[in-house]
Amino acid sequence: MWALPLWPQATPTSQGEELAEFGRHAFVPATGDQRNEDHDKLCQRELAAAGEVLGAFLGDRLNEVEEKYEQALIKIDRGRRFFGSSCLSWFNCQYMKPLRLYALIRLCLKSTALTPAPRPQAPAAPPPRLVPTRGRRRQVDTSTHFCPNPDCAYRGWVGWGNLRANGHPSGGPWRQLLCVVCRGYFLETLGTIFHGKRASVDLIVRVIACLAEGLGIRGTARVFEVDPNTVLQWLVEAAEQLRAFSRHVLHDVRVRQVQRDELFALLSAVKDGEVSAAEAIERLERTPQWVWVAMDPESKLLLAIDVGSRTLAMAQRFVHHVVQVLAPDCAPLFLTDGFREYLTALLTHYGHWVQPPRRQDKGPSPKPRWMPLPQLLYAQVVKTIRRRRLVRVSHRVVFGALEAVEQVLAACGWQIDTAFVERLNLGIRQRVAAVGRRVTTLCKGEDGVRHQLGLFHAYHNFCLAHASLRVPLLQPVPTNGTGSVKQWRPCTPAMAAGLTDHVWTLREMLLFRVPPWPQPAGV
Ligand SMILES: [Zn+2]
Q1: Kind and range of the H or E element at 259?
Q2: pTM of the predicted model as reported, rounded to 2 decimal places
Q3: Would you kindly state where each structural domain of the chain is located, as residue ranges?
Q4: Which of 39, 294, 304, 342 could form a disulfide with 88 if both were Cys (CB 3.0 to 4.6 A apart)?
């Protein structure tokens, strides 16, 4: 019989001991469709996935881990000859799963470094608000600005009455502001993409708008007769700023449902002469990239969007990202396709230790198990596709009771379905040139797509009014001329989710100075 404690012995550090400890009392999630699979393949895949994840958190000791994998595979191979497939299933369930799960929990704790940084907290309580008592009333509204001076006590507090408008220096387009506390001057564009740019605001906004509507970088450059590198530079800066904007506004979101999906993205590895196009396509087939999307079907709010491979580590990182956006006590109903790694990723985020009750009077008490939280609801929509045709759609409730899932959905009159996120995928394919189907606007790499997706994320949530969200006006507004009266008030996903109160324009978002920490009054 082969030696059981392979992993713990291999890593005789505190981490290894922890692994062993976890392996001793671990939860094994039961999934229905695993029984039909060939045990051998399953086991190999489990090992590979575990290696990937363990490698991520063991870091520099990856080589050692890989060596142990080789050994493990050999042992499994020997084991199969001796014990048949039942042994492999035992190995898989009793041994690999727990270790993998443990590694994932560790990875989740670590993945804060991978996902966008958590919301920064204010360093101290805010200073008292300043109310001007002397002089005439101020004409210029400075309530959306904050002092950037790191030595100033009023740094980062928006609208605390410490700022005065100081005219336009040298007749320039932007206003100068004065902080009366630290006597520092700064321009109202500080921290936005317009700061220090000589190109006109209109031009920059239109270029970004063109990119947001799905025209490629070269196309945009031709339309506005700008150098493509300039367009790319603006895109990178705008995406950075809009990501900060999204992070500032999207937090503590309360939703009842989350739909998640991935869509295929074609990235080009072609670099001037380094790799031929044919080679790049071949390489693409080996490392396909996927755009990961999570949205709330009720408000159409895009919670998170990211690009990466279709692996467990990525699923983990993505769930972590979504959980960061949601309110801490918010446990929505998750709906996904049949991608199995979601299960583990969700379980590590929405799980806790449970001490099973004693069944017998004698013997040691049972080990605690890692179980899903009782309020976690998760259902999958499994589509079977043969010869590019959809032949069957089946539903599977993974965590929680079917009645509970149906109750959440019945509030909207829906069934278990991922239709809304699939509709959103169409929007992404239309607006992000590099993800479109059968296009030649390939992106140079993951980073390029990430910038475009960052732009799409903010544009979709704050600028694009959604037809199904529009609200009837109490009083129809007459329009000029002979047109019919205006009956609807447009509504964006962010408005439907209660995050903002108006439709943002791209210019407004790009001019918004994102404060360094959350403000007491909100946006
Ligand atoms: Zn100041």
Answers
A1: strand 257-265
A2: 0.72
A3: 6-113, 251-354+369-444
A4: 39
